[in-house]
Write a structure and sequence with these properties.
By secondary structure, the protein is an alpha+beta fold. The protein is globular and about 80 Å long. It has an eleven-stranded mixed sheet with strand order 3-7-8-14-11-10-9-22-23-21-20, sandwiched between helices. It folds into three domains: about 260 residues, 2-Layer Sandwich (BirA Bifunctional Protein, domain 2), CATH 3.30.930; about 100 residues, 3-Layer(aba) Sandwich (Rossmann fold), CATH 3.40.50; about 70 residues, Translation Initiation Factor IF3, CATH 3.30.110.30. The protein binds one RNA strand through helix 1, strand 11 and helix 10.
Length: about 475
RNA sequence: CGGAGUGUGGCUCAGCUUGGUAGAGCGCUUGGUUUGGGACCAAGAUGUCGCAGGUUCAAAUCCUGUCACUCCGACCA
């Protein structure tokens, strides 16, 4: 049974068609994912939001470790001198670092910044640890928060402190570093598709958009429901630039001194914003089953009646034993309230169990993504629920893919691109000559920035959309968060 | 950093024009009745009106400053 037509199941959430930004904020607040704090620009990750982040951490961490990466923890502070060792890097980050100038009652001899990212710390450390080709590759990661003094902030999407992981690797050869850069980007892309049900475009950033200090930056770009792009994960190849700045050298098999080749890669709590904006609807959050902290919420009906709550707990225990994350909502609230509440919080499946069902040996399953309701036998309910969760996961990915495809356009001329962006929202694929002037001009004319030069190149035209000179790349353009 | 807007119980807001004992709805607490799409009845608790100055016999209300948040833009992994 589909939901009744036009019936809004959850009140108090601004419709996304009316005001997407307000809708986003409403979801964040009402699903209690995060809250504002007394520290300007810094958010509080509330239990519901942190639980999602923990699921993401668990999954990504396993994927990293499967490739030989190990975890560690680096300092929160970076001395000024260390930050300044790599020229491009410090220039890129200088406008947004926070400085500590006093310790206790005394001014510091050398001020230090709160890490905006930890390349310099890892480099300083790797220089001490790496001596021989036998020490390579070095594959480390840390889960931490970093600080960037942003001027405008939005929950999850941009805050002054945010949580992420940053992986830092050192390799003997340029080829190995390049392979690792691509490998990690692929892990992010797979994770997004398989676990977050978010399809992404994989590609390389332009010179203008690349990371400060990198020779190449790769990105996965996701498309939000409002047609704006969100950079969802990045992987950088540093070549030997940092190694030269920090003097990270090893002796190779031929007893020659060589510089290492490095990479770094990260995904942040920003991805929670992507989950909200890709899957959410006017009823609230919609969590992909693979990373939903609670996959099934059991709603007992007439739970004061003898046996109902017992049966609800029994069912929950059975599902738990089958490896499903389940909670019983035994709060003293009406069923209707609990239904709306779980929808707002995005729980993929609701299980209703009441006297009528118990008598028939049945339970009611309702899926969050399309409100479909099915009655199932309690016998074998574990499989029914597990199958349903996988079906929801697949449907959510299919729906998101459909949205991405239907909001990706091609333009052969700048006029065509302007027209497309006037009438639609989303990505525009267009040819580019490769120069900075054209990239800036396209932004000026259309409001869209280059999101990436996709690995899957297509031939749309022979010439750059802006200057008419021969094109070198097909680029995804779009407005971005 | 520029433009616009908003700060009054946990939340959403009224009150401000024209100064005179702090309001409503929701939520919360307790008891009871309820329960298949946001229940009902009864009794309660909760505020230095963002902050700091000023004007005044008297300020949520008028004036000045300041801080925070939201939206738009600029900037920006």
């Amino acid at each position: 049974m589909a939901k009744e037509e036009n019936k809004k199941m959850v009140e108090d959430i601004t419709s996304m068609d009316v005001d997407f930004a307000q809708w986003y904020t409403d979801i964040v607040k009402k699903a209690e994912l995060c809250d504002y704090s007394s520290m300007k620009g810094c958010i509080i990750l509330e239990p519901a939001g942190y639980a999602i982040w923990e699921m993401i951490q668990k999954d990504l961490d396993r994927r990293f470790k499967d490739t030989g990466v190990v975890n560690c923890a680096m300092p929160l502070f970076i001395p000024e001198g260390l930050l300044q060792k790599e020229k491009d890097h410090v220039e890129g980050f200088a406008p947004e670092v926070a400085w500590v100038t006093q310790g206790g009652l005394e001014p510091l001899q050398e001020k230090c910044c709160v890490r905006p990212t930890s390349e310099t710390l890892f480099c300083d450390y790797y220089a001490k640890k790496i001596h021989s080709y036998r020490d390579l590759p070095r594959l480390q990661n840390q889960w931490c928060s970093v600080v960037r003094w942003e001027k405008t902030t939005r929950p999850f999407l941009r805050s002054r402190e945010f949580w992420w992981q940053e992986g830092h690797t050192a390799h003997a050869t340029a080829e190995e570093a390049q392979a690792r850069t691509e490998q990690m980007l692929n892990i992010y892309a797979d994770f997004c598709e398989q676990d977050l049900a978010i399809p992404v475009v994989k590609g390389q950033k332009t010179e203008k958009e690349k990371f400060a200090g990198a020779i190449a930056t790769y990105t996965i770009e996701a498309l939000m429901h409002d047609g704006q792009a969100l950079q969802s994960g990045t992987s950088h190849n540093f070549g030997d630039g940092f190694a030269r700045a920090f003097n990270i050298q090893y002796t190779d098999k031929d007893n020659k001194l060589q510089y290492v080749h490095q990479t770094s890669w990260g995904m942040s709590t920003r991805i929670v914003g992507a989950i909200i904006m890709v899957h959410g609807d006017n009823e609230g959050l919609k969590l992909p089953p693979h990373i939903a902290p609670t996959q099934v919420v059991v709603c007992p009906i007439m739970m004061n009646k003898a046996g109902v709550l017992d049966k609800a707990n029994e069912l929950a225990d059975r599902l738990k034993a089958a490896g499903i994350r389940v909670k019983v909502d035994d709060r003293d609230k009406t069923p209707g309230f609990k239904f709306a509440d779980s929808e707002m919080r995005g729980t993929p499946v609701r299980l209703e169990i009441g006297p009528r069902d118990i008598e028939n040996g049945e339970a009611v399953l309702v899926r969050r993504d399309n409100h479909e309701k099915v009655v199932v036998k309690i016998d074998g309910i574990e499989k029914a629920v597990a199958d349903l969760l996988e079906d929801i996961q697949a449907s959510m990915l299919a729906k998101a893919k459909e949205h991405l495809e239907s909001h990706t356009f091609s333009a052969a001329t700048i006029d065509e691109m302007e027209k497309i962006l006037d009438e639609n929202t989303g990505f525009v694929k267009a040819m580019w000559c490769g120069c900075r002037e054209c990239e800036d001009a396209i932004k000026e004319k259309t409001g869209a920035t280059s999101r990436c030069m996709p690995f899957k190149q297509e031939h749309i035209a022979d010439t750059c959309i802006n200057c008419g000179k021969p094109a070198t790349k097909m680029v995804y353009w779009g407005r971005a968060y």
